[in-house]
Design goal:
By secondary structure, the protein is of the alpha+beta class. Helix content is about 70%, strand content about 5%. The chain folds into 3 domains: about 240 residues, Serine Threonine Protein Phosphatase 5, Tetratricopeptide repeat (Alpha Horseshoe), CATH 1.25.40.10; about 110 residues, no CATH class; about 130 residues, Histidine kinase-like ATPase, C-terminal domain (Heat Shock Protein 90).
Length: about 475
């Protein structure tokens, strides 16, 4: 409100309104700085120059950085010019221009340049003053600072007032036109004053008449504004008091409406949170499954590499060494070599079976039985019971793949660690579950060492399809596993 009053020339009223604002300022910050700056503007317009400078300096104390200090410093320099303290004004304005941050605000830089040029001109340093004012004028035209160019035109009109009346007249006419466009009455009057001084012909009387008309009009308008503003404040206070009662009456209704609104908001928040939670859980499990697949693939690749290195590579090396040390013309040597090559072929086929894709269609049962049967050897007898009694077509593909991979790992573990003469696999099926019982009469091991024997991956697979896996083993008493999973 104080700013509006200053725009309308009510500087005393503006100071009264600023005084009303002071109790609302709790800390020295940007608001107290703004209030003191407005105080300074009002005092400057009322020609209370010492008070104006004091208020601008108070505003500076509340500014936290050099950028926020620049407007108040510029205002102090303007007051110094009014006081004819040109050296002080030039010192302050030059210090602002030396700050790098001034280049970030072209309109502010133009204002400081114009004031610095004007101060130099008033001091009598005409050439430097004209150079700076012209630079400001060009910068304002470049950035379309039309309102700021009014001040540039007025300063240049004053500069050429005694030396080149035609140029002075041009600048004054430009200032008058722009001030008229922006409805800036004080600047229009200043421009008319220069036009009156520069013209001694017929237009002089026209300019003088305009000046008198505008001056009389603005005095009446500003007096009316003061009365109207006072009435508005009075009516506003009265209306505020009348509405206070209505607000109290509406308070209970608003509270009940707010309660209902809060219920709806909490409901929406709850639904939204639940949706986001479900979305997060879905993404979490997708990521976990993806990681498990990557880990499984890595484990599989590692196992294949180990099998090839530990067993297959050794067998191939022995076969090559055999051919290099034995005569292949002998029948018994050829027969032994063929046996070695056949053993290598069986090993390659076994590794391939362990890691190739799994057929989960109608041939699943037969393929599973064939895979388990490949672990039959002269030293190990694998017995498979009741495999065909399970209705495999009612079980989804992921569970079928998991069962086959788990049984493969179980058989590989048996071959590496158990040395079991007999292995028994028994399949049982109920309405809701499938149970697979594995047992062998091999070496067995301590229960604490079971997971270390490469069976952690097997347990992870079963848990991923919500099944359970139970190990039972003791040294010298074989190895037992019970696998239970839902259909």
């Amino acid at each position: 409100m104080a700013s509006i009053q200053q725009i309308n020339g009510d500087y005393y009223g503006s100071k009264e309104t600023l005084t009303e604002a002071l109790p609302y300022v709790k800390n020295r910050d940007v608001y107290s700085a703004a209030i003191n700056n407005f105080y300074g503007i009002a005092d400057k317009e009322l020609s209370l120059y010492n008070d104006a400078i004091s208020n601008y300096k108070e505003a500076l104390k509340d500014c936290k950085d050099e950028i926020s200090k620049q407007p108040s410093l510029n205002n102090i320099a303007v007051v110094y010019i009014h006081q004819k303290k040109y050296n002080e004004a030039i010192k302050v304005l030059a210090s602002i221009l030396n700050q790098k941050s001034i280049n970030k605000n072209p309109s502010r830089k133009a204002r400081v340049l114009d004031n610095l040029g004007y101060a130099n001109f008033k001091k009598g340093i005409n050439e430097k003053g004209l150079l700076l004012m012209t630079e400001s004028y060009q910068l304002r035209k470049q950035i379309d600072d039309f309102y700021g160019s009014i001040e540039s035109n007025l300063h240049l009109a004053e500069y050429f007032l005694k030396t080149d009346s035609q140029k002075s007249n041009q600048y004054a006419q430009s200032a008058y036109e722009i001030a008229t466009k922006f409805n800036s009455v004080d600047e229009r009057l200043k421009a008319l004053a220069f036009l009156i001084s520069n013209d001694s012909g017929n237009k002089n009387a026209q300019y003088a008449q305009k000046y008198i008309t505008i001056n009389d009009s603005i005095i009446k308008i500003r007096n009316n504004f003061k009365n109207k503003f006072a009435k508005i404040k009075y009516d506003s206070k009265k209306e505020k008091d009348e509405n206070q009662q209505l607000r109290l009456e509406k308070a209970e209704n608003e509270l009940s409406l707010q309660a209902a609104n809060y219920q709806r908001i909490f409901f929406i928040i709850g639904i939204t949170s639940l949706f986001l939670l479900l979305l997060y859980l879905r993404k979490f499990y997708q990521n976990r499954n993806r990681i498990e697949k990557l880990e499984t693939a890595y484990d599989t690749e590692t196992r294949i590499a180990k099998d090839i290195h530990d067993e297959l590579a050794n067998d191939v090396f022995h076969a090559i060494t055999y051919t290099q040390t034995q005569s292949l013309t002998k029948e018994e040597v050829k027969e032994t070599l063929l046996q070695k090559l056949n053993h290598i072929y069986i090993r390659v086929r076994g590794i391939s079976r362990e890691n190739n894709s799994i057929d989960t269609g109608i041939n699943y049962s037969a393929n599973l039985k064939e895979m388990l049967s490949t672990y039959n050897s002269s030293n190990t007898n694998v017995l498979i019971n009741s495999l065909e009694k399970v209705n495999w077509e009612s079980i989804d593909e992921i569970k079928k793949v998991t069962i086959q991979r788990v049984l493969q790992e179980l058989m590989v573990n048996m071959k590496k660690h158990s040395d079991a003469p007999v292995v028994v696999l028994k399949f049982e099926s109920t309405a809701n579950t499938i149970t697979i019982n594995y047992s062998d009469n091999g070496k067995g091991c301590e229960k604490d060492l079971i997971i270390k024997n490469g069976l952690q991956n097997m347990e992870n697979r079963i848990l991923s399809i919500k099944g359970t896996l139970t190990f039972d083993s003791e040294p010298g008493k074989g190895f037992k596993v019970k696998i239970t999973l839902p259909k």
